Amino acid sequence: MATADTLLVNIWCHDIGRENASGKPLLKTIFQVILKIFNPKKTTLLFVIRDKTSKTPMDALVRDMRTDLQSIWQSVTKPSKHARASFDDFFTLEFTSLPHYEYAHDQFIEEANALYGRFADPNRR
């Protein structure tokens, strides 16, 4: 993680907003580690929201995730040199979603391959 440009965080759509199911304890640990090894280069957190259906708009999921992330950030004890640092000083956020694996399998495979392509491209910086 100290050398990663991007950290993919897999989260189930139905877990967004849940305290433990959404990986909040893990995210808090990640934030604490990043604060200790701070590199001036921001880490991109790419949240891959799994099994998204058309019932919940993506912008609502992103809004809820951003609210949760800010809350987690505020709860992290920061070293004195970063006491006033904002979440955006350390992280760039990106969000994407994948359709339900069983109910939209072909579309899931297609979109998962497209996501893979973002990282398999040798020209990607």
Beta-strand percent range:
15-25%
The share of residues in helices is 40-55%
Structural class given helices, strands, pairing?
Answer: alpha/beta
Termini distance?
Answer: 17 Å
Number of strands: 3
Give the strand order of the largest sheet, numbering strands 1, 2, ... along the chain: 1-2-3
Segments where pLDDT lies below 50 for 5+ residues?
none
Number of helices: 4
- Using the alpha-carbon principal axes, give the shape: globular
Q: How do the helices and strands follow one another from N- to C-terminus?
A: EHEHHEH
Pfam family, one: RHD3_GTPase
Protein name: GB1/RHD3-type G domain-containing protein
GO molecular function, one term: GTPase activity
Organism: Micromonas pusilla (Picoplanktonic green alga)
Overview of this protein structure:
The chain is an alpha/beta fold and 125 residues long. The protein has one domain. Helix content is 41%, strand content 21%. It is built from four helices and three strands; from the N terminus they run E-H-E-H-H-E-H. Strands 1-2-3 form a three-stranded parallel beta sheet. Helix 1 (24-36) links the parallel strand 1 (6-12) and strand 2 (43-52). Helix 1 crosses helix 2. The longest helix has 18 residues, at 58-75. The mean pLDDT is 85.
